[in-house]
Amino acid sequence: MTSGAHGAGDAWSLTDVITRLRRTLRASVREELPWESLPMAQVELLQRLAEEPGLGVSELAVRQHLARNTVSNLVQQMVTSGLLERHAHESDRRAVVLNLTADGRERLLAWKQANERRIRRALEGLSAESRHAIDEALPALQTLAAQLEAQEEAGAEQAS
């Protein structure tokens, strides 16, 4: 097997593992928090706004790589359900900024804690060598995620 073929196999294996992890975590958090009915798109918006409070709908759409009308609809649902609040922008009263409400922060924290508990339990069932390998891989995976985000942003800029 050539190094190129090996790399492609590794890429598929990584994609498969990430997909399975996301699916399993999503399902398990719903089992642990049966009241939790947040779609992943809403969870991801909450996460982004927790990291970058005060974004507008357009900025949020760009950062999440979603259509503006999709984000607008999600935001409206989340405002109605009390997870987000909208305020007029200080310098442009026609624009709005978005922030998490106390309920939005609490729901996001509960979601994060449920996922963390699930991962910790799973990690405890692994050998010390496997846990160490995962710890060692995290920086490289974070770099990979940042590179993929940068490539996506560059592609979005070229398209516009």
Summarize the helices and strands and which ones pair or pack.
Layout: H1 3-32, H2 40-51, H3 57-64, H4 68-80, E1 84-88, E2 96-100, H5 102-124, H6 128-159
Antiparallel strand pairs: 1-2
Helix pairs in contact: 1-5, 2-5, 3-4
GO molecular function: DNA binding; DNA-binding transcription factor activity
Keywords: DNA-binding, Transcription, Transcription regulation
Domain HTH marR-type: 11-150
CATH architecture: Orthogonal Bundle
As for the CATH topology, it is: Arc Repressor Mutant, subunit A
Write down the overall mean pLDDT: 86
Strand content: 5-15%
SSE order, one letter for each helix or strand: HHHHEEHH
Q: What CATH first level would be assigned?
A: Mainly Alpha
Helix count from the secondary structure assignment:
6
Write down the domain tally.
Answer: 1
Please estimate the helix content: over 70%
Low-confidence region ranges? 1-5
Report the span from N to C terminus.
40 Å
CATH homologous superfamily heading: Winged helix-like DNA-binding domain superfamily/Winged helix DNA-binding domain
By secondary-structure content and strand pairing, the structural class works out as mainly alpha
For the report, how would you describe the main beta sheet? 2 strands, antiparallel
Query: What's the overall geometry?
Result: globular
Give the C-alpha Rg: 19 Å
**Total beta strand runs:** 2
